Known about the structure:
The chain has helices at residues 26-116, 121-132, 144-153, 190-206; strands at residues 2-5, 16-19, 138-142, 164-168, 177-181, 184-188. By secondary structure, the chain is α+β, with helices and mostly antiparallel strands. It has two domains: 2-64, no CATH class; 117-206, 2-Layer Sandwich (hypothetical protein PF0899 fold). A hairpin with a 2-residue loop joins strand 5 (177-181) and strand 6. Helix 1 (26-116) packs antiparallel against helix 4 (190-206).
Amino acid sequence: xxxxxxxxxxxxxxxxxxxxDGAPPAWLNQEYARLPSLMASRQTSIEQAxxxxxxxxxxxxxxxxxxxxxxxxxxxxRVTAESQSQNAAIxxxxxxxxxxxxxxxxxxxxxxxxxxxxxxxxxxxxEVLSRLNTREPTTVQLHPDDLAVLKANHPxxxxxxxxxRLVADTKLSRGDCKAVAGEITVVYELxxxxxxxRRELLSTVNGHAEPGP
Length: 213
């Protein structure tokens, strides 16, 4: 009878063969002799498998992190593009608001000048006459209040130019001027000029022409 004692701790530490009824076969001793190396090889295989599993887990974690970074980058690009679009819209709105504010302020100042009698009506009439560019008899029409201011501030205006006649026209608004020479008529309307300036400024800030009235 052969009794074999194999401790169950890993790796295999020892194998004891006890001969009771005769010597064990040689092949059995050989197999027993191989047991430590086989167990060590098995342990190595297990460790290698564990390392491979850990590497696979780490690789999968890296893949997940890379995917998360890619999603984060895509979201960041989207938010950046959206912010740039919003910023451009806000800047455009601020520019338009600045133009509108400037238009209101300019109109208020001009009409304050008209009310105070400090509006340069003489220069306005001179500009309108220069547009006619003629020596034919010319009639210049102004709002009655503007004509009164012109005569009060510049009594010499038109005195030495016999072909120009100044008349009042109640149909005109303050700051307007109309000059007629034969079949040629030049009309200057203050509110239209202010509106034209406003449209030009808006066209400049928006990059496209603004529709007229």
